[in-house]
Design goal:
Elements lengths: L1 H44 L1 E3 L6 H18 L2 E9 L5 H4 L4 H19 L3 E9 L2 E7 L9 H14 L4 H20 L8 H24 L14 H13 L1 H11 L1 H15 L8 H17 L1
Parallel strand pairs: 1-2, 2-3
Antiparallel strand pairs: 3-4
Helix pairs in contact: 2-6, 5-6, 8-9
């Protein structure tokens, strides 16, 4: 009889302990749900400063900027600071290999984005160990804020967060705005290769034709419009009106080097004033002087 009572007491204690554990777990879950909702509500405002890195005024100004970004670009932004990494992940967060630590913090930032429901840009700042990770979630925001933009924000926080945390926070949000605007504007149209290839082929063809003409023609004034001496100048003027002076000089030099020399000499002769003819009296006076000079000698 005593043994049966003892067994009943032990069974009751075991059941009570099991029910107590179940009640505790239920209470913890019930208490965790409101906490998660409160955290998600704060995260929706744009700044979740658990580590206390920023002043209240800076947080208020940052939230105003983030609301404007959400309205203009339909992209949420969350600046999320944590005091320390999870204790269970200490081996990954405190590793000596920078690449592995970087991968861990980026994966952690993605998980927190999903948990908090932030669709857009997530800036995760861990105080211990110190690390900054910038990610986008879901993947459709990659086009709005690419890997180069995210690396730039990470460098900005690493460089200036300790010395000027408030200014760095607001400056980073301004840079995010610049990057979003840059990626939203359409890229300038690239030059089509078809017209460019046609232009290059045409230029090479013209050069080859000019080379053939130069070898086949040996006249000083080829393509003369008339038989007058002005034909070379007319040709040069026509070429200059079509292709410009530099191109005309090159074509004329390649095709008509002798013609240029002749034309240059003609132009020089035109510029030099002709000698004035002497009168008959002057010629008779010079001859008399020569005769007298001969008699005296």
């Amino acid at each position: 009889m005593t043994r049966s009572r003892l067994a009943a007491i032990l069974a009751a204690s075991v059941l009570f302990a099991a029910s107590g554990n179940a009640f505790a777990q239920t209470a913890e879950v019930g208490a965790g749900a409101p906490y998660q909702l409160a955290v998600a509500s704060i995260a929706h405002d744009g700044v979740l400063d658990e580590a206390g890195l920023f002043s209240p005024d800076a947080v208020a100004a940052a939230r105003m900027k983030i609301r404007q970004l959400r309205q203009e670009y339909h992209c949420a932004v969350l600046v999320d600071t944590v005091a320390r990494a999870p204790a269970g992940d200490r081996s990954q967060s405190n590793t000596w290999f920078a690449r592995k630590a970087d991968e861990y913090f980026h994966q952690w930032a993605h998980r927190r984005s999903e948990e908090l429901g932030v669709e857009g840009i997530h800036v995760l700042i861990c105080k211990q160990p110190r690390h900054i990770a910038v990610v986008v979630w879901p993947q459709r925001f990659e086009a709005q804020f690419n890997a180069t933009d995210r690396s730039g924000i990470e460098r900005l926080f690493r460089r200036d967060l300790v010395s000027a945390p408030n200014e760095t926070l607001l400056g980073a949000l301004d840079q995010i705005r610049v990057d979003l605007q840059k990626n939203r504007e359409p890229a300038p149209p690239s030059l089509a290769l078809g017209p460019l290839g046609v232009f290059i082929a045409g230029a090479i063809g013209v050069w080859l034709v000019l080379a053939v003409v130069r070898r086949g023609l040996h006249k000083p004034e080829p393509f003369a419009l008339t038989g007058e001496s002005q034909s070379m100048r007319l040709n040069a003027g026509l070429l200059a009106s079509m292709f410009g002076n530099p191109c005309t000089y090159w074509i004329t030099d390649r095709l008509f080097p002798h013609g240029i020399a002749c034309t240059s000499r003609e132009m020089v002769q035109e510029v030099v004033a002709p000698e004035m003819p002497t009168s008959p009296n002057e010629e008779h006076f010079e001859s008399d002087q020569l005769v007298e000079h001969g008699k005296m000698s």
